[in-house]
Amino acid sequence: MILGYARVSTDGQTLDAQLASASADKTFAEKVSGAKTDRRQLQRAIAALGKGDVLLVTRLDRLARSTRDLLNVLDDVAKRGAGFKSLADPTFDTTSAHGKLILAVLGALAEFERSMILARTSEGRKRAQARGVRFGRKLKLSRYQIEEALARREAGETLTDIGRSYGVSHSTISRL
Questions:
Q1: Which residues lie below 8 Å from residue 164, measured CB to CB, with a gap of 6+?
Q2: Is residue 89 within 8 Å of 56, Cβ to Cβ?
Q3: Thinking of the domain 2-106, which architecture would CATH place it in?
Q4: Choosing from 9, 23, 115, 174, which is the catalytic residue?
Q5: C-alpha dihedral over 30, 32, 35, 41, to 10 degrees?
Q6: Catalytic status, residue 66
């Protein structure tokens, strides 16, 4: 069975052109931004797919706005044993060996891009730490207040009383 998916971004746009060009047994259509990953009709279309079925769109940008989003959707389709076709982009056809190759290359590129982003982020974090930049939450108490609170704790004062005097919870004092 061929299941179509049609989407427009705004109420001023019409689904007519997409619906007319798609020769699907059943079509799921919605008017929602492609930037949203939670699209009800797309989820319904994917859920309706069975083994050997095909999800059909008129153009790739109707399905996804980013490579990551596209790969996630295509992974969901593949997990159901179904294929994918784009009428305007015939290279994106997972029912053919050529289309599977193109998608495998895209997947590898996306994975490479993600690993490069992680490496750059890690290097930037290390450089910032070397410059003295602190990460995480800002301390609720100054160094002087921490030393004073520890001394008061050693003297036997309750955590609750110490915390109240600094405007923090007893839990904050207990973690010092």
A1: none
A2: no
A3: 3-Layer(aba) Sandwich (3.40)
A4: 9
A5: -30
A6: no
The candidate with the shortest Cα–Cα distance to 162, out of 171, 27, 81, is 171
- Model pLDDT, residue 35: 67
For 83, list phi and psi in degrees, rounded to 5: -110, 180
Grade residue 155 by pLDDT with cuts at 50, 70 and 90: very high
> What is the Cα–Cα distance from 97 to 25, expressed in whole angstroms?
24
Q: Which residues make Cβ contacts (< 8 Å) with residue 103, sequence separation at least 6?
A: 71, 74, 92, 94
- pLDDT digit string (tens) for 41-61? 889 999 999 999 999 888 887
In three-state form (DSSP H/G/I as H, E/B as E, the rest C), the secondary structure along the chain is: CEEEEEEECCCCCCCHHHHHHCCCCEEEEEECCCCCCCCHHHHHHHHHCCCCCEEEECCHHHCCCCHHHHHHHHHHHHHCCCEEEECCCCCCECCCHHHHHHHHHHHHHHHHHHHHHHHHHHHHHHHHHHCCCCCCCCCCCCHHHHHHHHHHHHCCCCHHHHHHHHCCCHHHHHCC
Domain map of the chain by residue range? 2-106, 143-174
